[in-house]
Structures are given as structure tokens and as C-alpha cells.
């Protein structure tokens, strides 16, 4: 599917951009009510000394992820037909997800505008170096990049830093756009503080933190994982600005994360990410309609749950091979020559190449 047909596909998908207010309100209800219910049940059980109830933070986190997906659609202006409704629902959910809606919306728009463009990296995406860029780094910077790309940091420490600390400040470079990013972050911070203060005064400081912190950390880890596999997978495409084409980057640089039905529902069809990037104004609950009517799209960038686990090792873009590779693939361990009569059939040195 080349650019000409991909461009025409955007026009063909225009009817799917129509949202339903009734359906959107229904989606909001069946996501928000279970989240609040699970939160209250967990708090009540913890307050009664039933610590095993903390297992309920897992499904609660899943519903918080789904709330974030609604916020995400509000940011694209696709959840409601009314722009003001999108803005206020997005802001309110942002208090729960600890994500300032206005500032995030700006950064996410830049992500969509330059996803897969090697010359426009660094805003709203996972930091990704090319093999040559990594080789040019000093040893200390290489170590930092390796740590950043390590799964423990990427999906453990990273989400905690992002949602608990980084989102409390305006994104880098956005202050030049005026006072709105600053106001978005500060207003969200104030609302979060007010909600937490009220809950702690009513329910107790300890119980509230014991319930909310795990939910936030689990939801954050899930969210970062989803965002990661949407663009960091074997088969994605990256190009420099002169060769970058929006429609090709959308369909071939974003994955179709084909999850089991329950996970697909909990993640609000965000796995149909290639279609979403091609036409961001389609509400998430209409994305399956696109795959139903255009079945050829289902095979593009398809990634199963099992296959996605291998994406965690990918770390560098190889411009010669035009694919993401792991550190081991980029810098293979040398094999020493085999001496005759040694009886050795082959072995490897357990140290990384000095390159």
C-alpha cells in the first residue's frame, strides 16, 4: 500500500470520524464507575486490615488505563463532537491520570506529526538513537542510554518518574508557546492536591496512599508498555525528513497490537494504532469497524502479545538494515579463531565489543 493509495484511504475513512454522544457517555460510564467502585472496595478492605485486597489495584489500574485512553481521544477531539466537552472531560480525567491535559495534548500532537521521522525525535516519544549516534557517544552517555532502555527502568522506574514527577512541570520547550502549558500543569497539580487532600482528610492518609500509589504505578507501567510496542517493534519504519511520508509512517511505523478480546477492550482498541495514526479523529470505539470493513489493514504491523515481548530488547535504529536492533545485534560478540586439534567447536567471549 503506497502513498497514493494511503492518501486516498484517509479520505475513505473520513465517515468513521463521526462520534456518538450517547456512545461516548456510555463508554465513560462503564469505565469510570468500575474504577471508582474498585478503588472504594480496595480502600474499605485495606482499612479493615484485609491486605490481600490490594490485588484489586490491578483491575483498578486497568480501568485507569482505559480512562487515560478516553483522555487520549479527547486530546484528538474525537471522543465528543463538541470541542469544549472534549477539553473538560480530558482535564477532569487528567486529575486521575496525573496527566495535565493541555500540555500533554500539545506534546502528543507533535508526536503524531513526526512519528517515525529521524529528524523530529524527542517530543512525546521513546528516545531512540541510531547505531551510529550510539557509537559516537562517550562511554558515560552510552551507559546512561543503556540504563534508560533497560526494561526495569523503561517500564518500572520510568513510569513512576513520568507520572509522579515529570508531569508536575511543563514539558521542555513548551514555555515558548505561551502561558497555556504552564497553566495546564499548575491547574492539574492544584486539582490533584485538592482531591488528595480531601480524600486523606476523609479516609486517612495511609489508606489513601496505600491504594492510590500501586494503582498509579501499575497503570503507568501498562501505559508505557503500550506506547512502547506501538512504535518499537520489529518491522517498524523510520526515515529522515526528506524521505519521510506521513501516511507511510502511520501505517507502517505503528503496530497493530492484536490483543486478546478482554485486553483489547480494557485498552480501548489502542492496539489498532496504525489506523489511529493514519486518522487520529476516529473514536476508539469505531476503530474495529475500520478493520472489519478494510480487512487488509489487519495484517499491517500485526503484533501478538507473545511476539511483543521480544520488542523489549530492541534499542537502536540500524539505518543500513532499516530496522530496530538490540545492542547484541548491533555489536555482536566476536568469536575467536578455533585452533586445530583443540577439540573446541566454537565459543563466544562474554564481553561486549569494544566498539
Could you characterize the architecture of this molecule?
By secondary structure, this protein is mainly alpha-helical. It has one domain. It contains 16 helices and five strands. The strands form two sheets. Strands 1-4-5 form a three-stranded mixed β-sheet. A hairpin with a 4-residue loop joins strand 4 and strand 5. Helix 3 packs antiparallel against helix 4. It starts with a helix and ends in a 25-residue tail after the last helix.
Short synopsis of the structure:
The protein is mainly α.
Describe this protein with a few key phrases:
mainly alpha, two-stranded parallel ribbon, 16 helices, 5 strands
**Overall morphology:** globular
- Sketch the topology as an H/E string, one letter per element: HHHHHEHHHHHHEHHHEHEEH
The first-to-last residue Cα distance is 39 Å
Tell me the β content: under 5%
Sheet bearing the most strands, described? 3 strands, mixed
Structural class: mainly alpha
The percentage helix is 55-70%
* Total number of strands: 5
Write the layout of secondary structure elements.
Blueprint: H1 3-12, H2 21-47, H3 57-75, H4 83-97, H5 101-114, E1 129-130, H6 131-136, H7 139-149, H8 151-164, H9 180-203, H10 205-231, H11 246-253, E2 256-258, H12 261-266, H13 273-278, H14 287-293, E3 302-304, H15 305-308, E4 314-318, E5 323-326, H16 327-330
Parallel strand pairs: 1-4, 2-3
Antiparallel strand pairs: 4-5
Helix pairs in contact: 2-3, 2-10, 3-4, 3-10, 4-9, 5-9, 8-10, 9-10
Amino acid at each position: 500500500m503506497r502513498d497514493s493509495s494511503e492518501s486516498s484511504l484517509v479520505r475513505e475513512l473520513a465517515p468513521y470520524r463521526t462520534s456518538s454522544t450517547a456512545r461516548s457517555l456510555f463508554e465513560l460510564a462503564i469505565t469510570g464507575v468500575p474504577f471508582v467502585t474498585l478503588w472504594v472496595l480496595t480502600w474499605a478492605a485495606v482499612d479493615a486490615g484485609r491486605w490481600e485486597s490490594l490485588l484489586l489495584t490491578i483491575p483498578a489500574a486497568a480501568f485507569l488505563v482505559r480512562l487515560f485512553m478516553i483522555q487520549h481521544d479527547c486530546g484528538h477531539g474525537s471522543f465528543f463532537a463538541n470541542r469544549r466537552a472534549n477539553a473538560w472531560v480530558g482535564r477532569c480525567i487528567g486529575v486521575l491520570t496525573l496527566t495535565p491535559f493541555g500540555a500533554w495534548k500539545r506534546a502528543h500532537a507533535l508526536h503524531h506529526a513526526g512519528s517515525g521521522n529521524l529528524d523530529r525525535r524527542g517530543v512525546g516519544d521513546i528516545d531512540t538513537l541510531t547505531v551510529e549516534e550510539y557509537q559516537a557517544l562517550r562511554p558515560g552517555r552510552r551507559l546512561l542510554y543503556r540504563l534508560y532502555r533497560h526494561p526495569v527502568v523503561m517500564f518500572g522506574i520510568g513510569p513512576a518518574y513520568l507520572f509522579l514527577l515529570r508531569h508536575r512541570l511543563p514539558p521542555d520547550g513548551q514555555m515558548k508557546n505561551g502561558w497555556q502549558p504552564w497553566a495546564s500543569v499548575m491547574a492539574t497539580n492544584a486539582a490533584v492536591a485538592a482531591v488528595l487532600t480531601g480524600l486523606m482528610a476523609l479516609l486517612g492518609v495511609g489508606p489513601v496512599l496505600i491504594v492510590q500509589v500501586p494503582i498509579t504505578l501499575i497503570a503507568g507501567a501498562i501505559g508505557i508498555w503500550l506506547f512502547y510496542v506501538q512504535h518499537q517493534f520489529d518491522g517498524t519504519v523510520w526515515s529522515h525528513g526528506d524521505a519521510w511520508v506521513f501516511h507511510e509512517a502511520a501505517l507502517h511505523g505503528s503496530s497493530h497490537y492484536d490483543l486478546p478480546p478482554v485486553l483489547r477492550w480494557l485498552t480501548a482498541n489502542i492496539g489498532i494504532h496504525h489506523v489511529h495514526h493514519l486518522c487520529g479523529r476516529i473514536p476508539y470505539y469505531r476503530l474495529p469497524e475500520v478493520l472489519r470493513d478494510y480487512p487488509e489493514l489487519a495484517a499491517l504491523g500485526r503484533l501478538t502479545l507473545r511476539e511483543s515481548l521480544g520488542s523489549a530488547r530492541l534499542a537502536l535504529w540500524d539505518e543500513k538494515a532499516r530496522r530496530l536492533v538490540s545492542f547484541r545485534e548491533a555489536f555482536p560478540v566476536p568469536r575467536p579463531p578455533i585452533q586445530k586439534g583443540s577439540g573446541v567447536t566454537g565459543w563466544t567471549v562474554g564481553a561486549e565489543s569494544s566498539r
